[in-house]
Specification:
Blueprint (H helix, E strand, L loop, with lengths): L2 E7 L3 H17 L3 E7 L5 H7 L6 E9 L5 H20 L3 E8 L2 H8 L9 H14 L6
Helix pairs in contact: 1-5, 2-3
Length: about 140
C-alpha cells in the first residue's frame, strides 16, 4: 500500500481543513495509507516534505495565501512553489500542489468548496495528481 503524507498549512485553518478533508476522502477511497502534518504557513511545507522524503511515496501540500497590499504574496508563493518543484524533481517523488493562491477570501472559499462554485477543489486536484503519477508508472511495450 502506497503511503502519502499530507502537509497542511493552517494559516487559513477553515480553508486548509476543507482541502484536507477532501484529499483524505479521495486518497482513502483509492486505498492509500495517509499521514498528516500541520504547519503554520505554506513557507514551512517544503522543509517538512524534505524531512520526510524517504518515508513516503508521495506528498500533498495544502494551504492558502491571499494577496495583500505588499509583495509578500508573490515572494512567499514563488519561493514555496519553487522549493516544492525542486524537491519533486530532485527526489523523483510526486508532490501534489493544493496551495490556493487567491486575490480574496471569496476566491479561496470557492477553490476549497466552502462556497459552491464550478471551480475544482484544489485539495482534490493535488491528491489526484499524486495518484495519477503513482499509478501511471512505466509500461512495457
Amino acid at each position: 500500500m502506497k503511503k502519502i503524507l499530507i502537509v497542511k498549512a493552517n494559516y487559513y485553518n477553515k480553508i486548509s481543513q476543507k482541502l484536507s478533508i477532501t484529499s483524505i476522502k479521495f486518497l482513502k477511497k483509492n486505498k492509500f495509507k495517509i499521514s498528516e502534518i500541520e504547519v503554520p504557513g505554506i513557507f514551512e511545507i517544503p522543509i517538512v516534505i524534505r524531512n520526510n522524503i524517504n518515508k513516503f511515496d508521495g506528498f500533498v501540500s495544502l494551504g492558502c495565501v491571499i494577496k495583500g497590499q505588499t509583495p509578500h504574496f508573490e515572494l512567499i508563493c514563488k519561493s514555496t512553489f519553487n522549493a516544492i518543484m525542486s524537491l519533486t524533481v530532485s527526489y523523483n517523488k510526486p508532490i501534489g500542489n493544493g496551495i490556493i493562491t487567491a486575490f480574496n477570501i471569496k476566491q479561496a472559499y470557492q477553490r476549497c468548496g466552502i462556497i459552491k462554485s464550478n471551480k475544482p477543489n484544489k485539495g482534490l486536484e493535488a491528491a489526484n495528481a499524486v495518484l495519477s503519477i503513482l499509478k501511471n508508472g512505466p509500461k512495457k511495450i
